[in-house]
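Hi everyone, sorry if this is the wrong subforum. Our group has a chain we'd like a structural model of before ordering constructs, and none of us has done structure prediction before. Sequence below.
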Amino acid sequence: MGYKNGSLTVAPWSNDGKAEPKVIMTSHCDGEVWGLNVVCIDGKNKWRAITSADDNRILTYDMINHKSLAEG
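Answer:
Right subforum, don't worry. Here is the predicted structure as C-alpha coordinates:
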Protein backbone atom coordinates (compact mmCIF):
# COMPACT_ATOMS: atom_id res chain seq x y z
CA MET A 1 0.00 0.00 0.00
CA GLY A 2 1.22 3.47 -0.79
CA TYR A 3 0.36 6.37 1.50
CA LYS A 4 0.19 10.12 0.97
CA ASN A 5 3.16 10.63 3.33
CA GLY A 6 5.49 8.84 0.87
CA SER A 7 5.67 5.49 2.66
CA LEU A 8 5.06 2.02 1.22
CA THR A 9 3.68 -0.69 3.48
CA VAL A 10 3.21 -4.43 3.05
CA ALA A 11 0.24 -5.90 4.91
CA PRO A 12 0.58 -9.69 5.03
CA TRP A 13 -2.54 -11.83 4.76
CA SER A 14 -3.59 -13.73 7.86
CA ASN A 15 -6.73 -15.66 8.67
CA ASP A 16 -7.06 -14.06 12.11
CA GLY A 17 -6.36 -10.48 10.93
CA LYS A 18 -3.54 -10.02 13.46
CA ALA A 19 -0.59 -9.81 11.06
CA GLU A 20 1.27 -6.51 11.50
CA PRO A 21 1.90 -4.28 8.46
CA LYS A 22 5.57 -3.57 7.73
CA VAL A 23 6.85 -0.27 6.33
CA ILE A 24 9.27 -1.08 3.52
CA MET A 25 10.04 2.46 2.30
CA THR A 26 9.86 5.96 3.74
CA SER A 27 10.36 9.11 1.68
CA HIS A 28 9.29 12.70 1.33
CA CYS A 29 5.87 13.28 -0.19
CA ASP A 30 5.57 16.89 -1.30
CA GLY A 31 7.75 19.17 -3.38
CA GLU A 32 11.46 18.58 -3.53
CA VAL A 33 14.27 17.69 -1.14
CA TRP A 34 16.10 20.91 -0.25
CA GLY A 35 18.37 19.75 2.54
CA LEU A 36 20.88 16.89 2.69
CA ASN A 37 23.59 16.09 5.21
CA VAL A 38 25.69 12.93 5.38
CA VAL A 39 27.48 12.13 8.64
CA CYS A 40 29.62 9.32 10.02
CA ILE A 41 28.86 8.62 13.69
CA ASP A 42 31.81 7.97 16.03
CA GLY A 43 34.24 7.66 13.10
CA LYS A 44 32.97 4.11 12.55
CA ASN A 45 30.97 2.59 9.73
CA LYS A 46 27.71 4.20 10.92
CA TRP A 47 26.79 6.44 7.99
CA ARG A 48 23.59 8.50 8.21
CA ALA A 49 21.85 10.65 5.61
CA ILE A 50 19.54 13.37 6.90
CA THR A 51 17.11 14.99 4.46
CA SER A 52 14.55 17.78 4.64
CA ALA A 53 11.92 18.78 2.09
CA ASP A 54 8.90 20.91 1.26
CA ASP A 55 6.69 18.52 3.27
CA ASN A 56 8.19 20.02 6.48
CA ARG A 57 9.70 16.71 7.58
CA ILE A 58 13.23 15.61 8.41
CA LEU A 59 14.11 11.99 7.64
CA THR A 60 17.18 10.08 8.80
CA TYR A 61 18.41 7.01 6.93
CA ASP A 62 20.95 4.29 7.75
CA MET A 63 23.06 4.31 4.60
CA ILE A 64 24.76 0.94 5.24
CA ASN A 65 21.55 -1.05 5.92
CA HIS A 66 19.38 1.01 3.53
CA LYS A 67 16.57 1.74 5.97
CA SER A 68 14.78 4.69 7.50
CA LEU A 69 15.59 5.34 11.15
CA ALA A 70 13.64 8.40 12.27
CA GLU A 71 11.23 11.11 11.18
CA GLY A 72 10.62 14.52 12.68
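For your construct planning: Residues 8-71 form one domain. DSSP finds no helices and six strands in the chain.
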